[in-house]
Amino acid sequence: MTDISRRCADMQASPIRKLVPLANAAKARGTSVYHLNIGQPDIPTPPGYWNALKDSLPNVLAYGPSQGLPVLREAISSYYSRSGITIDTDEIIITTGGSEAVYFAFMTTCDHGDEVICFEPFYTNYNGFATMAGVKLVPVTSRCENGFHLPEALEIESRITDRTRAILICSPNNPTGTVLSPEELQTLSSIVQKHNLYLLSDEVYRDFVFDGGTHLSTLQLPEIEDRVIVMDSISKRFSSCGARLGNMISRNKNIMDAALKLGQARLCPPTLAQYGAARIYHNLDANYYSDVMTTYQNRRDVLIEELSGVDGVFFLKPEGAFYATIQLPVKDADRFASWMLTDFQLEGETTMVAPAAGFYATPGLGLDQIRIAFVLSEEKMRKALEILKEGLKVYRD
Ligand SMILES: Cc1ncc(COP(=O)(O)O)c(C=O)c1O
User: Fold this and answer.
1) Which of 103-107, 125-129, 255-259 has the lowest mean pLDDT?
2) In this structure, is residue 227 part of a structural domain?
3) % residues pLDDT > 70 (the chain)
4) What pLDDT shows up at residue 207?
């Protein structure tokens, strides 16, 4: 038997999913589990999706164009125009989830062994795509006490080497809920110009900015329009993670030509789902976006009400997305999260969270932190957090 590739052997297991066997065992014992560990929204997928699938049923479920169906690329272009952002359909390629957009962004900008700077804690699946693309992620640490905003420009620049090709950001952020300010985006703009880099910008949570804030897209930085690659998705926007549709946007023609070659190699994104997605974009109620944003904001407020002031618990108010990275009064949050599933229950229920260490690239960081996804109803959030607080009272490191 030959060994598996070094590439796969080196890939870490997802910290979001690694405690699933413990959760399954708890359920088998009859304990119900509140899932605050995974960003799976509970909001119904807009009905336009299902109607479009029924109306579009073809005799042959054929391949579509590699860059995606024109109807969906046009719908995305008009979605962006609502925010005052002009994007030509040629500047959009439909991908199989935002996930493939991340992979395409690495593949179009980096050669094997090139480096991409990213801010830890970061969306853990960047690791997998970087490994697949042979890219080395170079972490710069953002800190809980600063609400996970960017460190000083000098600290960022100190990590740039002659192999650095890009800076990767995610705003609104998974796993922290941080929204980068216009000033922070300006700082990044200056750095990428000064050092001749790309800016890879994951904006899949762009609709969820709280407290009256608006999202400034990196597509609104004209001075770096050739350097920006945006990764986007309908998974969270339309609560349609299973459609597996995202898109990559760039005004850099060479990047888009390169992405198309990658797109042709995998033939096309899911055809039927694209009809559904296009229909959602076209048929949504005017209030859809603000209603969904408010739903998440109210859940965020439950999180603040329930956890603020709890001894040893620290986090700043998440500004967007639907995540918070929270410091707990425990030495090893991995052990605590496991213990909540194996040893703790309150009236037959327990709460599952994601240990945050797996969202850091630097060993030893985030050991006392967890990530919470506020994707359950306010009532369930309250119950889940009550259980978490009771667990913290009883738990001993
Ligand atoms: C920050 C971020 N980027 C990209 C993705 C990938 O999304 P999908 O492939 O479902 O579109 C996710 C999913 O959770 C995410 O949180």
Assistant:
1) 125-129
2) yes
3) 99
4) 96
Q: Say yes or no: 156 and 111 in one domain.
A: yes
Domain count, the chain: 2
pLDDT in tens, 257-314: 999 999 999 999 999 999 999 999 998 988 999 999 999 999 999 999 999 989 999 9
Residue 100 CA: nearest ligand 1 atom is: 9
Say how many Å lie between the CA of residue 123 and the centre of ligand 1.
8
For residue 380, how many other CB atoms are within 10 A of its CB?
Answer: 17
Same-domain check for residues 136 and 254: yes
Q: Give CA–CA dist 193/253, Å, rounded.
A: 18
The domain boundary, picked from 219, 252, 283, lies at: 283
The residue whose CA has the least distance to atom 14 of ligand 1 is: 39
Which residue, 193, 184, 198, is CA-closest to 228? 198
- Mutation choice for ligand 1 from 104, 174, 200, CB with most ligand atoms inside 8 A: 174
The answer to whether residue 54 scores a pLDDT higher than 70 is: yes
DSSP 8-state assignment for residue 60:
S
Identify whether residues 232 and 339 lie together within a single domain: no
- Please name which of 330, 390, 323 lies closest in space to residue 15, comparing C-alpha atoms: 323
Residue type at 176 in one-letter notation: T
Q: pTM of the predicted model, to two decimals? A: 0.96
Residue to substitute in 204, 234, 241 for testing ligand 1 pocket (most ligand atoms within 8 angstroms of CB): 204
Structural domain ending residue among the three candidates 221, 250, 283: 283
Which residue has tokens 């985006």? 185
- Cα dist. 187→176, 191, 224, 227 in Å? 20, 6, 12, 14
| Domain range enclosing 332 | 6-44+288-394
**Residue-level pLDDT at 373:** 96
Supply φ then ψ for residue 204, to 5 degrees.
-70, -20
Q: Are 304 and 338 in a shared domain? A: yes
Rounded-to-integer distance, Cα 160 and Cα 153, Å: 11
Q: Is 1 part of any domain?
A: no
pLDDT beyond 70 at 1: no
Picking from 216, 292, 286, 281, the residue whose alpha carbon sits closest to that of residue 247 is 281
Residues enclosing ligand 1, CB less than 6 A? 39, 97-99, 102, 123, 170, 174, 202, 204, 233, 235, 241, 246
Ligand 1, from 235, 237, 247: best to mutate by most atoms within 8 Å of Cβ? 235
Instruction: Specify whether the CB–CB gap between 172 and 179 falls below 8 A.
Output: yes
Same domain (yes/no): 89, 175: yes
